[in-house]
Each structure stands twice: as C-alpha cells, then as structure tokens.
Amino acid sequence: MGSSIHIPFSAKEIAALHDQYTALWHREDPVLPDKLTRILAHHTGQEVEKVRRDSERDRFMSAEEAKAYGIIDEIFVGKDSLISIAKQTEEKEPKEEKEPKERVPVAAR
C-alpha cells in the first residue's frame, strides 16, 4: 500500500510563498536574475524589458507560442502523437458539409 504526504496550500498562500522566494532570490543575488533575463532576451530576439515582464510570474506556453517567442527552434511531432493522428485523419476524411440541426424550442422538448 502506498502513502503520500500533501500539504494543501491555497492559491493566495502559494502566491505569497512565490513572492517571498522571489524577493529572497533578488536580495541574495541581485545580479543573477538580470543576467538570465539578458541571456534569454538575446537568444529569443525579444526586448529585455519584455522578457523581464514575462518572466516575473510563471508563464505557460503551447509549443507554437514557445516557438513564436523564440524559446524553441522547432516543434517535433512523432507519427504516433495525437497531433499527427488528428492531421492524418483530417487529410483522409473528406470534409462534408453538415446540415444545420433544426432548432427545437426548449418548451417543445
């Protein structure tokens, strides 16, 4: 039988912890965040201030958004991935025009 430990935090508590951690990090090494920001800006082609704003909080991106931002160069999709399967299915199936469903008033149902 497995066991786990879980310390529940509310979103507000997590945000406060994140703010405390970020403040501590900046206080302990004020140069490192600036260096990392400049390196990321250089390699992504983004402005330093944009990278600074975007990296103040967690920012989740899709693969397409990460590529557009410049964080990644290419998106590799294997033949067994859901994206590839969906594209293959779209290519094989002819697009059929669906007739719009007749709208039935709620009272008539």
Could you walk me through the main structural features you see in this protein, from its secondary elements to its overall organization?
Helix content is 52%, strand content 0%. The chain has 109 residues and is mostly helical. The chain has one domain (11-91): 2-enoyl-CoA Hydratase, Chain A, domain 1, CATH 3.90.226.10. The longest helix has 18 residues, at 11-28.
CATH homologous superfamily annotation: 2-enoyl-CoA Hydratase, Chain A, domain 1
Determine the CATH topology: 2-enoyl-CoA Hydratase, Chain A, domain 1
Mean pLDDT: 78
Provide the helix percentage.
40-55%
Overall domain count:
1
| Cα-atom radius of gyration | 24 Å
Largest sheet: none
What is the tally of helical segments? 5
CATH class: Alpha Beta
What is the percentage of strand-forming residues? under 5%
Q: What ranges have pLDDT less than 50 throughout 5 or more consecutive residues?
A: none
Specify the structural class: mainly alpha
N-to-C SSE series? Answer: HHHHH
Task: Estimate the global geometry from the Cα principal axes.
Answer: extended
Secondary-structure arrangement, i.e. CATH architecture? Alpha-Beta Complex
- Measured distance between first and last alpha carbons: 50 Å
Number of E strands: 0
Q: Could you give a quick summary of the protein structure above?
A:
The chain has 109 residues and is mainly alpha-helical. The protein contains 5 helices and no strands. Helix 2 crosses helix 3.
